[in-house]
Design goal:
- Chain A: Belongs to the binding-protein-dependent transport system permease family.
- The structure holds 2 protein chains of 2 kinds.
- Chain A is an all-alpha fold.
- Chain A has 13 helices and no strands.
- Chain A has one domain: MetI-like (MetI-like fold), CATH 1.10.3720.
- Chain B has one domain: Orthogonal Bundle (MetI-like fold).
- Chain B has 10 helices and no strands.
- Chain B is globular and about 65 Å long.
- The chains are: A mainly alpha, B mainly alpha.
- The interface between A and B is large, with 59 and 63 residues.
Amino acid sequence: MTFAQIVSWFTDPANWQGTDGVPNRVTEHLLYTALTLLIALVIAVPLGAWVGHSGRMRWLVTGANAARAVPTLGLLFAVSMFVGPLIKSDLAFVIPSIAVLVLLAIPPLLSGTYAGIDSVEPAARDAARGMGMTGWQVLTKVEVPCALPLFLSGLRSATLQVIATATIAASVSLGGLGRYLIDGLASRDYVQMVCGSILVAVLALVADGILALLENRAVSPGISGRSARVARSRARHPDHHSDPIGADRPDPDSRQAALVGSGSTGPVEATATTGTPSERDRT
Amino acid sequence: MTWALDHLGDILARAAQHAWLAGLPLVLGLVIAVPLGWLAARQPRLRAVLLTTTGLLYTIPSLALFILLPPLLGTKILDSINVIIAMTVYTVALLTRTVADGLSSVDGSTRQAAVAMGYGAFARFRAVDLPLAVPVIAAGLRVAAVSNVSIVSVASLIGISQLGYFLTDGYARSYPTEVWVGIVACLLLALVFDLVIQVASRVLTPWTRAVAA
């Protein structure tokens, strides 16, 4: 297989029309992803916020994280074998796949929301109350902005997980870009498989890039450390003990940056190191 | 249950292949991620570059990566080396950040004490920073191990032999028992990996137990 074959696949008009065309497959893939995330958000966000706020039923978060060890392929096959025959319509292939995708999207969203709310400093909450904010104002002006970085990193890993698994779900007859990979394999059309893989990779990278931008825009500068003024005033803070020997690099406490950073670390890690948002530095 | 017992030999053989495909990349990934993480922890600018690059690699879905590697590397699609390399890429992506975070989390006063005792940069890294970062690195390694075991099973879709075979074969033959056996075997393998890493982490950090006792 050569580079020219890949180019000719992408420039072949036949690959851009109809059900099997690139626009339709991309749309399908995005629709599955959006639908899944919507359902998962509706389930995971209130639950995670409640667990984080009340501190009760933390085992839910631990349990959801442990459930991630279940191989996604196995879950996909098992659910479609059991649920598929129960549904007598064209949706027999779509519903089980979406159900599995939702199951996979819940753990990162749940622990992201939980860790976000849990990471809000009690002092910040108390200060807001002391300033005379109502419960609703505390929630919208303090808790939500502080929880946002961890929640968004959960959303990012959930999105990636769903895009990747929706590809695999083509093996249980779901549409989307995975069709090129699975159909290409069945008909030994290796060029089609490679071109499908390129599309999947590009889709994942673009989706992740958009969410990274959103993360950058939505997170308050005071939390992300984007504002240079905040950083400078923090450096002058009297409690900030100077470190003459380790002065070869800045504040060693860049551990928190992991949680807001650009990579797709799972919220497993996020829950392990819930930090004080005000101390996070920039990546 | 009887099916599992009847096919025990086959299950164990595939479990061994699975352990190899998921385990070797963990070791390779750790070996690559430690120097990268060390660089990232020392140079904030390099940290941004390294973590962004590895983050982008981690973004590529596994099935797509399994298919894209052969033309890039000139290997055959059925070569298990593709899976090993893909899993190593994912492991490095996860661990570089963890190693950097672990090294950065070492207390400033501990580092000063080491410097005052005459440790050079490398000796300090080997004898002080790295051992103290073991718990954080082990936590990252556990995440990587569990995700590796799960992702390797996807490779059965392109015909690489491991525990995932029971999933695809069971589905193709509409035989749920076989799928369940595959799932349980994967879970057990992930559990074994997790326990091995936890034990290794405990053995490597005797001081944490000394405090507890």
